[in-house]
C-alpha cells in the first residue's frame, strides 16, 4: 500500500521503513531488483533459512505454542518409549521363562529325592524301633546288673556288721574281763518293742538265727551247704503258731532302716556299774563310723536291759539306717 510507512511514522512518531531482508545480502546481477523490492518483505523466512544453512545463528526464536511443542517432543520420544516398554516386556518374559525352567528342574529334583527318601524313611522308622528296643533292653540289663550287685549286698553288709562289732569289742576290752557282742535278731521286729527276755535254749537261738537264711536260700546254700539235701534246705522244726507270728511281725530288710537286737556279755556281772552302757554306746559309735550306715539316723533304740548281777548276758536295741538300701523287685 502506498504511503503506509509515512502513515505509521506520523501516527506513532517513530521512524518507519519497509523490512528488507536483502539489505546486507549480495544479490546476483541476474535478479531484477525492481521486482524484488515489491515482494522483499515476504522473503524474511526464506532469507533466514538460507542464512541458517550457511552459518550458525546465535539466537533462535520458536513461536510454536507450548502444547504443540510438548506434543512434538513426545512424538519424537515415542520410539524410545516403545522400545523401553518392549524391552521391559522381554525382560519379564525372560524372567518368567527362567523361573519356569527352574521350577521344573526343582520339581524333578524333588520327585527324585522323594523317591530316594521314602526307603530311607522306612529304614529310619525301623532303626527307631530297634533303638527303642535296645533302650528297653539296656534298661532291663541295668536293672538286672543292679540286682546282681545287690546279690552280694547283704553278705557285704553282714560282713561289715561283724567288723563293727569286733572293733567295738576291741575298744571296750578290759584286762581279765572278756567282751562279746553279737546279733540276736536282725530286722524281724521294731527295736522299740523289745522287752528283756530270758536266755533261750541253744536250739531255739539257732532256729531264730537261721530264719534270715531261710528267707535267703542262696546265702544259706553258700554258708550252710550241709543243710541242703535233695536241693532243699532242711531246718529243725519249730512250733507252727510261733512261726506264723514271726511271719506276720517280720519287716523287710530291703528297706532303708533295719531294727537290730544285740546281745552281749554282762560287763557288770562283777559289780562294775556303767560298763554295759559303755559297750552299747561304743557299738553305736562304731556303726556311725561305718561307710554303709547313715550316722545321723543310726542310734540306740528302746531301753537298755539291766540284767541281774548273776546274769551272763544283756540285750539292747539298735536302729540302723542304710545309706544305699538294696533295690526291691
What would you say about this model in short?
With 329 residues, the chain is of the alpha+beta class.
Which key phrases capture this entry?
329 residues, alpha+beta, four-stranded antiparallel beta sheet, two-stranded antiparallel ribbon
Radius of gyration: 64 Å
Helix tally? 9
Topology, number of strands: 6
The percent range for strand residues is: 5-15%
Structure write-up:
It is rod-shaped, with a radius of gyration of 64 Å. The protein is 54% helix and 9% strand. Helix 5 (153-172) crosses helix 9. The strands form two sheets. Strands 1-4-6-5 form a four-stranded antiparallel sheet. It has a two-stranded antiparallel sheet with strand order 2-3. Mean pLDDT is 76; it is low at 188-209 and 236-254. It folds into three domains: 4-54, no CATH class; 71-150; 153-321, no CATH class. It is built from nine helices and six strands, in the order αααααβααββαβαββ. It has helices at residues 4-12, 33-39, 44-54, 66-150, 153-172, 202-215, 217-223, 240-249, 275-289; strands at 181-186, 228-229, 232-233, 257-265, 299-301, 313-321. It is of the alpha+beta class and 329 residues long.
Amino acid at each position: 500500500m502506498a504511503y503506509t510507512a509515512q502513515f505509521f511514522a506520523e501516527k506513532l512518531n517513530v521512524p518507519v521503513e519497509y523490512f528488507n531482508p536483502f539489505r546486507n545480502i549480495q544479490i546476483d546481477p541476474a535478479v531484477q531488483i525492481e521486482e524484488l523490492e515489491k515482494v522483499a518483505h515476504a522473503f524474511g523466512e526464506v532469507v533466514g533459512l538460507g542464512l541458517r544453512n550457511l552459518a550458525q545463528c546465535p539466537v533462535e526464536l520458536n513461536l510454536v505454542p507450548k502444547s504443540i511443542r510438548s506434543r512434538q517432543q513426545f512424538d519424537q520420544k515415542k520410539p524410545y518409549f516403545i522400545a523401553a516398554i518392549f524391552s521391559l516386556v522381554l525382560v519379564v518374559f525372560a524372567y518368567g521363562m527362567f523361573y519356569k525352567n527352574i521350577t521344573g528342574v526343582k520339581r524333578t529334583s524333588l520327585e527324585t529325592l522323594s523317591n530316594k527318601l521314602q526307603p530311607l524313611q522306612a529304614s529310619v522308622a525301623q532303626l527307631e524301633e530297634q533303638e527303642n528296643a535296645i533302650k528297653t533292653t539296656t534298661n532291663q540289663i541295668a536293672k538286672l546288673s543292679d540286682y546282681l550287685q545287690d546279690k552280694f549286698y547283704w553278705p557285704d553288709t553282714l560282713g561289715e556288721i561283724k567288723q563293727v562289732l569286733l572293733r567295738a569289742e576291741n575298744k571296750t576290752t578290759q584286762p581279765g574281763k572278756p567282751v562279746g557282742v553279737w546279733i540276736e535278731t536282725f530286722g524281724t521286729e521294731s527295736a522299740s518293742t523289745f522287752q528283756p527276755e530270758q536266755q533261750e535254749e541253744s536250739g531255739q537261738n539257732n532256729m531264730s538265727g537261721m530264719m534270715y537264711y531261710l528267707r535267703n536260700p542262696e546265702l544259706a546254700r553258700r554258708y550252710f551247704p550241709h543243710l541242703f539235701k535233695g536241693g532243699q534246705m532242711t531246718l529243725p522244726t519249730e512250733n507252727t503258731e510261733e512261726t506264723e507270728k514271726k511271719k506276720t511281725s517280720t519287716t523287710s530288710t530291703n528297706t532303708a532302716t533295719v531294727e537290730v537286737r544285740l546281745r552281749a556279755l554282762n560287763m557288770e556281772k562283777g559289780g562294775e556299774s556303767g560298763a554295759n552302757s559303755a559297750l552299747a554306746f561304743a557299738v553305736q559309735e562304731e556303726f556311725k563310723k561305718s561307710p554303709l550306715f547313715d550316722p545321723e539316723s543310726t542310734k540306740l533304740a528302746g531301753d537298755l536291759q539291766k540284767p541281774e548281777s548273776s546274769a551272763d548276758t544283756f540285750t539292747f536295741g539298735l536302729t540302723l539306717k542304710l545309706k544305699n538300701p538294696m533295690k526291691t523287685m
